[in-house]
């Protein structure tokens, strides 16, 4: 039973997304989460903070992440940093991601090539379990590894032609394995392919829209994310997303926020179907972004 519970916890953490970003429904407000080639696309320094907290009847799960990016126009590059911490019961995960991008003019558009080095560390607190069977291969101290880490690599491309962006990401290139103990739990992060399409629409003088589609596959399951961000008078932001998933239930979510003097952006998720379907589950997710001119 303990083995099944531990395996479920790890599977949730590994399958929480095709990038660390997918701990968040609001990843659409920071696209370098899914493609390192989006790093430095804006001509400013950007600081982002994401928080996701879910409470259940007997436990809770939380994820916090900070990110930074800057465009270095003198060398046609973008640099960034993402750091996050995830906790769910006895399982925790920390990670650091270092994205880099280089952009150049190709034909009538701009081609950006990106790469990201990822460091991930998983840990299980076996002391959190009330009973420990000495013969249990998972929880036996002689066999159990309390934490394990690994490096990984993502690669991305983005081609922008006017208001349209086409993206390609290959995530988890090294396909790291997390083995918690002898004959215990082995979790592998499969190599994942992500195709994306985003396009800006100026609907009226005071309203523009950014719809986007992400198709992802780890070659065992596929899914599609359809998201839209609506900006009104450069102040009000309304977001919506629908996730079609082969291995899990589909999800619908809504978000809203404000821009303050083109410097501060605050986004709060208003609704997410996947949490509404969980009994006694309450979820809060928010994003605070600060934009500084270079």
TrEMBL record:
<protein>
    <recommendedName>
        <fullName>Type IX secretion system membrane protein PorP/SprF</fullName>
    </recommendedName>
</protein>
<dbReference type="InterPro" id="IPR019861">
    <property type="entry name" value="PorP/SprF_Bacteroidetes"/>
</dbReference>
<keyword id="KW-0732">Signal</keyword>
<feature type="signal peptide">
    <location>
        <begin position="1"/>
        <end position="19"/>
    </location>
</feature>
<dbReference type="Pfam" id="PF11751">
    <property type="entry name" value="PorP_SprF"/>
</dbReference>
